[in-house]
C-alpha cells in the first residue's frame, strides 16, 4: 500500500484494539494452532522465543506457555519493550504480523539479526494467489494490511536476508537463520 494511504499510528492502534483477540476464545486458539504446533515440533521448551507483534491477545504465547515454552512478548503498540530487541532468540513467532510491516526490509533485517545461528522465524499470513482478484480478497480489506506476500516474495526474503532455508505450507512460513 502506498504510504499516503497508511493509517495514522493512533488510528492503527484503535483498529487493533477493536480486534477480538481473546486468548480464551476457542476459535482464535484454533486459528493459531497450526503455528503453535509447528513451534512445538521444531523447538524445545528450554529455548528462548520471542512473540513479535503479539498484540492485545498474545494467544500464541499463552498456548506455548501451557506446554512450558517461554516467549518474550513484544508489540510496538501494546508491549513496547525495546530492550527485548537487543538480544538473540532461538525462535521468533510472527502470527498475522508481517502484513502490517510498513517497512518490510527494515523489519526482516531486524528479525534476522535477532535470531541465533540456526534459529527459526515462524510467520503466519495469508499468501496472495497470483492472478486472483485483489479487490475480492477479504485479506486486502483490512486497512492495517499494507503489504501482501506470495511464495516467491518469501523466497526473495530468504535470499536477500541470508536465511539458509524456507519452508512454506499454506499460511505458514518458516525461515531458518
Give your account of this protein's structure.
The chain is α/β, with parallel strands linked by helices and 177 residues long. The protein contains five helices and six strands, in the order ααβαββαβαββ. α4 links the parallel β3 and β4. The longest helix is centred in the N-terminal third of the chain and has 17 residues.
SSE arrangement:
Layout: H1 9-18, H2 26-42, E1 48-52, H3 59-65, E2 70-74, E3 89-95, H4 104-113, E4 115-124, H5 151-160, E5 165-169, E6 172-176
Parallel strand pairs: 1-2, 1-3, 3-4
Antiparallel strand pairs: 4-6, 5-6
Which descriptors apply to this entry?
Rossmann fold; 31% helix; six-stranded mixed beta sheet; globular; alpha/beta; single chain; 5 helices; 177 residues
Produce a short descriptive summary.
Helix content is 31%, strand content 21%.
What's the rounded overall pLDDT mean?
Answer: 95
Give me the side-by-side strand order of the main sheet. Answer: 2-1-3-4-6-5
Distance between the termini: 28 Å
Helical amount among residues, as a percent range?
25-40%
Q: What summary fits the major beta sheet?
A: 6 strands, mixed
Rg on CA atoms, Å: 16 Å
What is the top-level CATH class?
Alpha Beta
* Content of β-strand: 15-25%
Name the shape in a single word.
globular
The CATH architecture can be given as 3-Layer(aba) Sandwich
Q: Please, what is the CATH homologous superfamily?
A: Vaccinia Virus protein VP39
Q: How many domains, in number, for the residues? A: 1
Low-confidence stretches are: none
Structural class label: alpha/beta
> Can you tell me the CATH topology?
Rossmann fold
Helix-strand pattern: HHEHEEHEHEE
Number of DSSP helical runs: 5
Number of strands: 6
